[in-house]
Specification:
heterotrimer, A alpha/beta (431), B alpha/beta (340), C alpha/beta (541), B: 340 residues, alpha/beta, Rossmann fold, 8-stranded mixed beta sheet, 12 helices, 8 strands, 34% helix, C: 541 residues, Alpha-Beta Plaits, Fumarate Reductase Iron-sulfur Protein, Chain B, domain 2, FAD/NAD(P)-binding domain, 4 domains, 5-stranded parallel beta sheet, 19 helices, 22 strands, 30% helix, 17% strand
Amino acid sequence: MSTPSPDQRQIEGSRGVAETVARCRPEVICAYPISPQTHIVEALSALVKSGELTPCEYVNVESEFAAMSAAIGASVTGSRAYTATASQGLLYMVEAVYNAAGLGLPIVMTVANRAIGAPINIWNDHSDSMSQRDSGWIQLYAEDNQEALDLHVQAFRLAEELSVPVMVCMDGFILTHAYEPLAVPDQEKVDAFLPRFLPRQVLDPGDPISIGAMVGPEAFTEVRYLAHLKQLRALDLIAEVSREFRDTFGRDSGGLVRSYRCADADTVVVALGSVLGTIKDTVDEMRTEGERIGVVGITSFRPFPFEAVSRALAVANRVVVVERAFSVGVGGIVTSDVRASTANLGTGRRPREYTVVAGLGGRPISKASLRRVFTDAIADRLEPLTFMDLDQDLVNGELRRIGASPRSGPTAENLLHELRVNARQIPERST
Amino acid sequence: MVAQPIKFYQTGSFAVGNRLLPPEQRSVQAAPDRANALTCGHRACQGCGEALGARYVVDAALRASGRQLIAVNATGCLEVFSTPYPETAWQLPWMHSLFANAPAVATGVAAALRAQGRTDVRVLGQGGDGGTVDIGFACLSGMFERNDDVLYVCYDNEAYMNTGVQRSGATPPAARTATTQAVGPEPGNVFGQGKNVPLIAMAHEIPYVATATVAELRDLEAKVEYAMSLQGARYLHVLVPCPLGWGSSSADTIRLARLAKESGLFPVFEAERGVITGVSKIRRRVPVDDYLRLQGRYAHLFGAEPRPDVVARLQGCADRNIQRFGLLDDEMEESGEVRQ
Amino acid sequence: MDRPFAITLGVGSSLANKTGSWRTERPVYTNLLPPCVNACPAGEQIQQWLYQAEDGGYERAWRQIMADNPFPAIMGRVCYRPCETACNRGQLDESVGINSVERFLGDEAIRHGWTVPVTAHKTGKRVLVVGAGPAGLAAAYHLILLGHDVTIRDQGAAAGGMMRYGIPEYRLGRAVLDAEIQRILDMGVTLELESRVGDVAEAMRAGGFDAVFLGVGAHIGQRTYIPAGDSARILDAVTVLRETQGDTRPFLGRRVAVYGGGNTALDVARTAKRLGTSDPVVVYRRTRDRMPAHDFEVAEAIEEGVRMNWLSTVAHAGEQSITIERMELDDAGFPQPTGEFEELDVDALVLAIGQVSDLALVEGAGDVEVSDATVVVDDHMMTGHPGIFAGGDMVRSDRTVTAAVGHAKRAARHMDAWLRSGSYDEPAQPELASYDKLNTWYYSDAPKQHRPKLDAARRVSTFDEVVSGLDEATALFEARRCLSCGNCFECDNCYGVCPDNAITKLGPGLGYEIDYDYCKGCDLCVAECPAGAISTVPEQS
């Protein structure tokens, strides 16, 4: 681990996010606990309570649904509003998530990515935020904690310029609970980068309006299309804001996609979030062995940067999409968007595409396993949809059991029994 | 606070106004320049009690706040009939988010105003009984518990009217709705335990809880005005008859609200910090029949196979309210007077 | 503000949606006939003058009365107030004390010296009024206001007719009577007293009158056959009451029996008490509830010590006593003799069994029809003789001051039309504002304010008015008890209860207007109008 630079401190990712959010001067923070985002709102609670962040109202709400709802109320009243959630919490607030986007309210929310039950599981994957890919929110995925911090500053800027809510997705535990040297963006620079919130619409007795009308078939399509156009405009702005951020803070973060060693890559691995670090390490190793392999990291999953992805994959013959979530009964979620990007490469040829589902529910993603699947891909012997490190024996046993008895009991418990793992051996964190 | 009766002997406190009253004693609704917060052209049914109640409440709140008011509305009839694109009938800053979250959105509005230092602007949350008693109840309770500076008003028409008259937690026993049909041996809604949100609100010991009806405008306005003079979470539960859902004449909306109160079925009272501080006494007591017979939703109690047993149980509910809330004044109590 | 499309809307934009198209029936403001007005023999617009009085506009209220009746102060004392009997408030708690408010207004007018200006152009027509009683005086009042020249001739020494010579002073103080008569005379009416008209046709011709109003009253006491001793003292009520007005009041004796059951019988009995009779007794054939006299008069008489002998007839009158026979009512309610007799010691027997008119003056006018001892008039109050009108007790009707005043008004209006060779159409009466049309919930519980009365002990020694007037506060209270049946009194209910803001408040005195662009026709305004002053009509499709 490298020595911290002068503006870095050895802090937990959540702490860094909290301090960064505070420097964005939100006026209303809505908090409801759920692992693994709790450390963020806990830290913000202290910042508000101590007076370090002021003026700011910190509201302890009774549910995630209320958290997003209160954020909606705050935003529509002209205040910068922030909340954070994960997993079940995100799903519990879904109705309000869509509503915030539909109303065009520039709320920023951190999603500390975590699996969705059942079976209940507190560990990381991307099932939660992926479920909201059609909600109308911008979704930015952080590769590391420094980017997670930086993306929050950019998120407020994007949200308010476009009047659209932004989700900053960071991998639960892997990032949120990791201690590392982090540079919390400087307050003066944040202030310069992030102008005062000028809402596109606001509830004001001086200029009354009605917000949230019922819209019928005569205009609903147009409303939805306008929301789509807004996201398309975001593609330009995300890149622009990222450049401006680099100019102000001297760091690369954000943007639409980032390519790594792709210039001559025959095989390109596509992924989102913290797994990119492990993938890059694996790729580096394989490069030393002469494999022409590169990496494309997608930061902006919504809007999806088709053109940028298309350009990044322009020379690849083979694309391996590593996903921390999947669409049951279909397969890769990111893959389908990547496939749509490569369909128009203009070269008349299409790369072969592989989906690797990995790291579900907190299963570690090891370099060895990645290397194995990448090697198989390069040899073109990888299945189009691969569940990395799947314990096939365990699955086969359960399939036999199901086949033997129509009342075979719950699969999850059966699998645990099969593994002779009892509850005490489950890591002791809970929701 | 229950409206102080006006010592005036023509219509006293009962009518909306009176040319003979000094201006300061006139109701908000009597003012030629009242705000008309919910103005003409809205699409509420003929004789809609909720449209009336909402204008009564919001106009009064606007006056009490010097027109510095923001309203948050739950999904429901009031929202649908007031704001179908491209027309809104509201004349104050108003927003609708979802069915279940109006109290939480109001919390957010209040928090933003506090952060902005805009203590002059007040927040009003409003919804129907479905949005309040059922689906929005968690948000409501949270808002109460935090004592957020919101006046929340429930316009109670005792069922989900917007979706076609289905039972809500506020639907009274024996009432027919689309999901409690008037068939079988126990027609209509069940005799459950009831869900008295005003009493539940009182259990939160919030600064102010009150009930009212659209039949007693001055009482309603006085309660809004008093509620607006307080800070923190306040709850007002207004009975608003629904001609469509109740199967009543559009001209009977106010009469029904009056009979609900005069029969004892809907106690009108107010409470501060969990303690009842005022009760609106019954003026001309009526048996529940007088109230029930005007409504199609109770027609099965009086039809070819009348159900006096069910009516008697409903009378029992009214009698219990009368005793529990002390709805009769002493004189009437002694005489046991029931005006037919 | 750069508003998001469709989701965010400018306030009040719903005005573009004209919901009036939903309507199948529309509410309209109406003016129904209040029962008090319907019942008033003088046709007073009672609801309207109470409305004026309610805000302290006493002079406006008084002028409203004066449009129909020149005697508010007298009415407030002697009218038997059929208006109060008809008053809808009687079904709610107690009728409005209309009469006491009228008296208050009449007294206010006298106190302030309010007058009615004569502004009409002179028509040059000359009218003779025969009789200066309530009918004659009222006719003169209306006729002079219509621009005619009016001369009244009366055989008495003072104007007033039965108001002076029939109604005891304790019911109608003479200062009040004089003031209201003088106000009429001051308008330019010529009054010729002690001037008997023997032949009206002749008087008309001789005086060059274009028309005549007859209001000679009914001053002759009716007699009935009573077996009597030579020395029995039998008087008639009209004479007793008239003489009481003279300089020397009659003494009837210590014990007096009055025979009859009408108001006159009670007037005489109560007058006798005041003249020193210790034990006046009224003898009447039937029971109290069948007496023609008003109950309050009976009650007041009893309070003053008048004894009532119901179910009794006078069988024989002697010098110091009369014999009365007990009666009982048959199934049809008629009194039948029982054969049981009783002696009453009395010094005099006064007959109060009705009065008749002296109609000698029309005998010469051949086309004036007389029937049943009264002059026959048509709907216009005109006799069979063109130009000769009649009213009051001499025509067939209730014999009250109020009825006489009503006759006079109607006669004057038709006479005016007749003199101008035109016709007068009485305004059509709207539908009656019956009790069921009201929404009485809205009226305050307000107990009737009763006028103070003189102590019974003091009454018997004086002719001072028994009943006093209301002070201003109580008169105002009483006026405000009016339910304003069938007529808007600006309570703002319609304006308030409209769920669609479709009613505009036009300002004080101007009422309201319904905006049919938005009115959905729910009829809440109709149902919640306390006064029943809004009705529903089908929408024209």
